[in-house]
Input
Amino acid sequence: MKYRIGVDIGGMSVKIGVVDSEFNLSEKLRFPTGEGCTAEYIINGIIDGCRKLMKKYPIESIGIGSPGCVDNANGVVLGAGNLPFKNEPLAQKVSEALSLPTFVENDGSCALIGEMAAGACKGCHDAVIITIGTGIGGAIVMNDRLVRGAKLGAGELGHFVIDRNGEECTCGLKGCFEQYASATALIEQTEKAIKENPDSILAECGKDEITGKTVFDASERGCEVAIALLKEYGNILSDGSNSLNHIFQPEMIVISGGIANQGKSLLALINPHLLPGTEVATTTLNGEGGIIGAALLGTEYSK
Ligand SMILES: [Zn+2]
Output
């Protein structure tokens, strides 16, 4: 059996996993990240975690998925939003410390590689992923090759404008898809609906904590406020999916991120509004697609 390490760098934590040649996750470690942590802290954490796993498994290579803009050919993270990486030669630092081939790629791209190898779009040659979380990320594979763009920042699928008079976005535009379809947006929509309907089942479901799941829980209990809110949210996601299908015509659009845990309930909101030829699925990799895809960097699955 061959083993590779996949690393998924996120805003809240770094996950490090051992993936075998049948795409199973044999073991996983994680350490926290967050405000104030330095590039050195993250890189040393990755090196320490890999060292622990290398004692137990014969590891062939290391792949790292990072948010932001990644120069995959040189293994450099050019810039990564909230993370302290700026022209960071991540692959070089990790490979020098551990003496293993090390590869770096955008985290959305890793998630899509994972889905294409072992998940919701296994066997596809043209596929798109949208990762729904704090914001919306994404990646595109056409003809089995990642679309990286002239400046290596392609795949920002949360930033096409759906309302030019809408909310200001972090990217400088107004009314981006992300402003309406991210988990953050769904939580804001839930908070607003609770304020307007304090006696609803939705308000009861959200009395301790409001998450992306709250409105789904209330909807399941028959709450009409929640059902109406989710209907509109589903319309936004299906509009986005139909638009992405017009642009890329993939075999499959995969949705990942925490919201994708709603699986069938989420697809039931989207599917009735899809145009003929638009296919949408939720991830089947249980939040681990990013690790599995990262582990496959440097193999035939990543081009
Ligand atoms: Zn934007």
Observations:
- The first strand starts at residue 3 and ends at 9.
- Residues 159, 169, 171, 173, 176, 178 surround zinc ion (CB under 6 Å).
